[in-house]
Amino acid sequence: MKLTRLTSLAAGSMALALVASACSSSATTAPAGAPASAAAPASAAASAAASAAASAAGGAASAYTGPTDAGTAKGKTIAIISKGEQHQFWQAVKKGALDEAAKLGVTATYQGPATESEIDKQLTMLQTALSNNPAAVCFAALDSKAAGALLQQAKDANIPVIGFDSGVDSTIPVTTVATDNTAAAAVAADHMASLIGNAGTVGVVVHDQTSQTGITRRDGFLAQMAAKYPNIKVLPPQYGAGDAVKSADIAKAMMTANPDLKGFFGANEGSIKGVLNALKETGNEGKIVAIGYDSGQQQIDAITSGVEAGAITQNPIGIGSKCVDAAIDAINGKTLPKTIDTGFAWFDKTNINDPAIQAVLYK
Amino acid sequence: MQSTPAPAPSRAQSIMKGESIQRLLALGALVILLVFFSITVPHFASTNNYIDILTATAVNGVLATGVTFVIITGGIDLSLGTAMTFTSVAMGLVSVNLGLPLPIGLLAAFAAGALVGLTNGFLIAKLKLPPFIATLGMLYVTLGMAQVLSDVHPIYFEAVQPSFQQFFMDKMVFGIPNIVWVMLGGATVAWILLNRTILGRYTFALGSNEEATRLSGVNTDRWKIIVYIVDGLFVGLAGIVIASRMNSAQPGLGMGYELDAIAAAVIGGTSLSGGEGSIVGTIIGAFLISTLRIGLSVAGVPDQWKSVITGLVVIGAVYLDIMRRRSRA
Q1: Which of A35, A117, B142, B320 has its CA 20 to 30 A from that of A206?
Q2: Does the distance separating the beta carbons of B154 and A296 come in below 8 Å?
Q3: Which residues from chain A sit within 8 angstroms of residue B293, using beta carbons?
Q4: For A252, which of B52, B251, B299 is closest by C-beta distance?
Q5: Which helix (H) or strand (E) holds A352?
Q6: Measured at the alpha carbon of residue A360, what is the angle toward residues A358 and A363, in degrees to the nearest 5?
Q7: pLDDT, mean of residues B243-269
Q8: What is the span of the domain harbouring residue A48?
């Protein structure tokens, strides 16, 4: 996969993190209250140190703390284009963003297309948002390459662009607020491996191949498996568009083709819901290890009951509020780190009721 | 009152014969596909896999059955998928949020479907909107309404109606989930409606020659609306079936399901220009699509190629239909 300048810094810190987590044995969190206006190289080192401290328990968020005052951004409008509103994850991001905007006294608009495959509709929304001349734009790209021309348009109009959730294959966004999905998927792979005894066949159900979240989670999982667990065979990933019914049918087909299948990784909420439905329909609950991503009521219930072994949760409210923070800082002319890692955590039956985990789960 | 106008006997007979040939072609293609996959794809020829295929066909089979009526009249319904989601949300609201007994929730799904059908029919018959445009508009309306009513939140049945999924997904007869029997039962009802009732005769009449039908004294507007309501009732049934598979109403899904439904009907011999179609053919078409998809999945064919092959099969089926028509004319 091609690396661009934007992702190479993140990839570099991820590589450091993987190497460091292989050696380290304790988890520490980055010191809070570090100054927000760190210069790019220093903050790359800072976020590298932060994610280097991550162990199999989760990924520490980067040291970025947002502004306490809106400054010149007060009363201005920030346009947020997300990937949609139909999944609860996006509802949580929306809440985080709108709450933070209200707290700091800026206006934020939040919209997204009806499904995560409507790349063109999302671009149209971005275009419309730009023509209303917002003070800043936050954008979660459905396709990391397709928005190039519009981003240039934003840059020419001096509208700062903040990437979130999925990054954009471009140097134009001043920062990207996201989860380190590659490292998170690697942690999922680690847990899968230990649960199936480091050997066997595993299936992966992903939502799509065009968004960065789809690509990085799939590749992160596959790379970790290939690097550390040579006795585990990962089947070619199948794509269910995040549709729980389609993903269920795909998972059942994979089980049919591979009767000795030992585990499934669902790379987003819709995908793991499909896997869980498939296990239920075929009577394989508890016999095949299921590991998911994000939360939602069905996953929470499944993890509590033990049908699902565990999942990776992001920090959707954090993503929403940090992207508004970054937008305000950008409007005020502050320099931002290239990536703002909002952190992830592995959760299962043992820690699902911890306050830290409960705070980032959504229903 | 004059009897229903029908095309001249010989043309009717040749249409029937044409449909029978198409149905045989579709059935033949399905059998060939099953044999092919059984031979070339390991693990395909297993009872569990066949049951998986049946289960996967349930939702599309119901949607396709409903839209067959509409297509025979020369219309189309693009709102099938999102309206299905809308009806499942309606059911969720009634059975979970309001906590009313399950049968009332089922009625709510049918009512919601009928409402969408009534609206479609009204727009098309009374306001004379082209079916493509009217149902396309309703696609967006139902998509949005499903999200508005559910507050963009999935509605889960487990807590309030624990017996819901069990009732529909239980494998009570021959180890096949009940939703498959529901689909086949619905298809039987549709067959009776289409072939043994006046609704069926008028459906074909509207598609063959709407003007002549109207001139002979039939209230074509009213019957068109009824056809779309019947379609809506099947959409409601599909909403129930898909909700039972996921044990929830998911407001984000549904768009795109209409394409599979229409493809199933067309593969089965229903002509997009109206006047021809059969329920048996539609069900065979639905099975063909599921078999193709699942066979390719079990074979491990990459996603992209699955789409290409499915598309080519649909094109091939429609082409055969056109060739058959041309050779008869």
Answers
A1: B142
A2: yes
A3: 249
A4: B52
A5: none
A6: 75
A7: 90
A8: 5-63
Q: Are residues A59 and A90 in the same domain?
A: no
Instruction: Say yes or no: A93 and A210 in one domain.
Output: no
**What are the structure tokens assigned to A63, written together?**
């040291």
Distance between CA atoms of B75 and A137, rounded to whole angstroms?
A: 43
- The contact set of B with A (CB < 8 A) is 41-44, 46, 48-49, 52, 55-56, 59, 143, 147, 152-154, 156, 158, 169, 177, 242, 245-248, 250-253, 255, 293-294, 297-300, 302-303
DSSP 8-class letter at B123: I
Using the Cβ of A201 and the Cβ atoms of chain B, whether some distance falls under 8 Å is answered with no
Q: Range with the lowest mean pLDDT among A180-194, A349-363, B180-194?
A: A349-363
Categorize the per-residue pLDDT at B328 as very low, low, confident or very high, splitting at 50, 70 and 90.
low
CB-facing half-sphere around the CA of A303: CA atoms within 13 A: 26
Q: At A256, which amino acid appears? A: T
**Out of A91, A236, A273, whose CB is closest to B300?**
A236
Q: What are the Cα distances from residue B76, in Å, to A26, B13, B259?
A: 62, 25, 11
Nearest-by-CA chain B residue for A245: B246
User: Tokens in use for A268?
Assistant: 């987003």
What are the angstrom distances between the C-alpha of B94 and each of B99, B118, B159? Answer: 6, 21, 14
Q: Which residue is it, tokens 């072609």?
A: B25
Nearest-neighbour CA in chain B from A301: distance (Å): 10
pTM of the model: 0.79
More confident position, B279 or B2: B279
Which stretch of A90-104, A276-290, B207-221, B245-259 has the lowest confidence by average pLDDT?
Answer: B245-259
Interior CA angle at B256 toward A117 and B52, to 5°? 105
CA distance B71 to B131: 10
Q: What is the largest CA-CA distance in chain B?
A: 62
A39, pLDDT greater than 50: no
Write out the H or E segment, with its range, that includes residue B89. Answer: helix B80-92
pLDDT at B22: 65
What angle in degrees, to the nearest 10, is found between the helix axes of B178-196 and B47-72? 30
Q: How many domains, in total, are found in chain A?
A: 3
Contact of A272 with A266, CB cutoff 8 Å: yes
Say if A359 falls within a structural domain. Answer: no
Q: Could you give the domains of chain B?
A: 13-328 (1.10.3470)
Q: Which two tokens stand for residue B101?
A: 């007994």
Which residues in chain B touch residue A259, judged by CB atoms under 8 angstroms apart?
Answer: 43
Q: pLDDT tens digit string along A151-192?
A: 999 999 999 999 998 878 788 999 999 999 999 999 999 999
In this structure, the answer to whether residues A309 and A336 fall within a common structural domain is no
> Does residue A71 register a pLDDT over 50?
yes
